[in-house]
Design brief:
The complex is a heterodimer. Chain A is an all-alpha fold. Chain A has 10 helices and no strands. The radius of gyration of chain B is 24 Å and the shape is elongated.
Chain lengths: ~250, ~300
């Protein structure tokens, strides 16, 4: 096994110990539970609206960010806290490769959890209302949202022990507070970017999604571009910190 | 040919007037020395700056001033150096969720090691083959030390840096590890073993670099370090029933540099504690005084090294 593959496999494994995986899966399945409870008495025609406004909003604005923030912050944060950084940095692996592998591994780990939530929600909607066409869009939006949050929280987790608190404060105060009130700030909200990508694939439901994401254009391409930018920012910041900070 | 014992003929590691400070605290201060093939003991009391120096050498910590090169390159800039360098840190910094075997294999994979020991050989060498499939979280301190050594050995390092590797090991394990370090040194590898215990370093290596307060205190052979320690003045407290008379008589002994009376006891400064130990009872008998206690004061390694630093 090559050093890069070994580091990737170990990083994914480190991200998902059993207990944490179970807790994060429960968080991810909460939107589906809420959706099912809230639509118990709904008629067939209101299913898509409920999916977007209740299940989708809960999934994108809460569950995916929380899981992504926790796993993104942990990937280098735990190595730093447990003083195992020397084990991986004193290797013939460049700092940029190290940072890139850590971010990609964390995106993969978070995606494994988050996609379960998206598929569960889409499946619940399809089963209850007979509209299976939204699962793919939910997964695309989930992957975009996950990648942005993780890319930005990996360097944050390396920088401070309070990365989760800082990122959650951003989520609740800025994204779910200020950006909700001022639609122009939506471009700074990763979950809205992912939700907009979902909206671009959602057919008739896109109108409802458009009302949630404010000034954002409903576009998968734009979402992918945001992922690329976030990944590059995360990569540069993480690489720079690995190069310049004292690592022990 | 170098005559300063702080430097070696063919260095693999060079520390050039290196300093490291954390805010207001100076951890290493303008320290210059070098390390070459063979085992070198890095000696100093706790808090002397040993770990900081080893972290600078391994590139984990930046150098505030001066320079450190390993195999001719700056370890902070050239990660290729780590094809040939391995660090065994002092902390219990191992992945507790892995088994010993998984950790050693992971280490070999990360370094793409092909020439070093196989993971199985390394585990057998540190006598952890039987515990290799147990989670590391259940290991004792000594077992963790040994699994870290095994994880370093599989990378076939040319330079092996060990920070207090004998901590927590029992005497048998200690003897085994010391034998291993000696063998690696004889194979031409550069091995640095840090410790705060002189006797431990003495068993591991013939060459010692001693630091205290982040400064070079002494360097050279263990014998030279010991000789330097013997040459320093000691203070000996002597309890006697006739302090004034004994003080006067002891001043005539060539082993005493100075004598003072403090609260009925004598404080004798000497640069030859063995001669004083032989002279004092004889002198006491000659004046009909009796000695009830003879206690050397202030003999900690730290105080000895601090004296050596001030004398340099």
């Amino acid at each position: 096994m090559t050093p890069i593959k070994a580091l990737f496999v170990m990083s994914v494994r480190q991200s998902l110990p059993l207990r944490r995986t179970v807790v994060l899966l429960l968080i991810q399945l909460a939107p589906t539970g809420i959706f099912l409870l809230s639509t118990a008495n709904r008629t067939t025609g209101a299913g898509t609206e409920a999916l977007v406004e209740i299940g989708g909003a809960t999934l994108f604005a809460l569950a995916i960010p929380v899981v992504s923030i926790v796993l993104g912050s942990a990937t280098l944060g735990i190595e730093r806290r447990d003083q195992t950084l020397s084990f991986i940095v004193l290797r013939p692996i460049s700092r940029v490769s190290l940072a890139g592998i850590k971010i990609v591994a964390s995106i993969v780990a978070a995606s494994l959890i988050n996609v379960v939530g998206a598929v569960a929600l889409g499946t619940a909607h399809a089963t209850r209302f007979g509209e299976p066409g939204l699962i793919g869009g939910l997964v695309i939006g989930t992957l975009i949202t996950t990648a942005i949050y993780v890319s930005l929280t990996v360097p944050l987790g390396f920088l401070t022990d309070r990365a989760v608190i800082v990122a959650l404060a951003y989520l609740f105060v800025f994204e779910n507070g200020a950006a909700a009130a001022l639609g122009g700030l939506a471009t700074m909200s990763p979950w809205r970017i992912g939700f907009a990508a979902f909206g671009a694939t959602a057919g008739e439901a896109s109108i409802i999604v458009g009302g949630v994401v404010g000034s954002l254009e409903l576009s998968v391409t734009r979402g992918l571009m945001s992922v690329a930018v976030a990944f590059l920012v995360g990569l540069l910041l993480t690489t720079q910190m690995l190069r310049t900070r004292d690592l022990a | 040919m170098t005559t300063d014992p702080a430097f070696v003929e063919s260095p693999t590691i060079e520390v050039k007037a290196a300093s490291k400070w954390f805010g207001q605290k100076v951890a290493v201060s303008r320290l210059s020395c070098s390390f070459g093939p063979g085992v070198t003991g890095l000696l100093g009391p706790n808090g002397a700056g040993k770990t900081t120096l080893l972290r600078m050498i391994s590139g984990l910590t930046s150098v505030s001033h001066g320079a450190v090169t390993v195999l001719g390159r700056d370890p902070r800039r050239h990660h290729d150096v780590f094809r040939s360098v391995a660090l065994v840190p002092d902390e219990d910094s191992v992945y507790d969720e892995l088994t010993g075997r998984q950790l050693v294999r992971y280490s070999a994979q990360l370094s793409n090691a092909e020439a070093g020991m196989t993971p199985e050989d390394a585990l057998a060498f540190v006598e952890l083959a039987d515990a290799a499939d147990r989670l590391i979280e259940g290991y004792s301190k000594g077992m963790k030390q040994r699994i870290k050594v095994a994880a370093a050995l599989v990378t076939d390092p040319q330079v092996l840096i060990l920070d207090e590797p004998l901590n927590g090991t029992d005497p048998i394990q200690r003897a085994h590890l010391i034998g291993l370090f000696e063998q690696l040194g004889e194979e031409g590898k550069t091995v640095i073993v840090s410790s705060h215990v002189l006797e431990e370093v003495e068993r591991v290596s013939t060459r010692v670099v001693a630091i205290v307060d982040g400064r070079l205190a002494a360097a050279g052979s263990v014998d030279a370090i010991r000789a330097a320690m013997h040459d320093i003045p000691y203070i000996v407290r002597i309890n006697t029933d006739q302090p004034r008379e004994l003080a006067s008589a002891l001043l005539m002994s060539p082993a005493s540099i100075g004598v003072s009376i403090d609260d009925g006891s004598l404080e004798v400064t000497t640069d030859d504690i063995r001669t004083l130990g032989a002279d004092a009872p004889r002198i006491a008998r000659s004046i009909d005084a009796s000695i009830t206690a003879f206690r050397p004061q202030d003999q900690s390694l730290e105080s000895v090294f601090r004296y050596l630093v001030e004398g340099r």
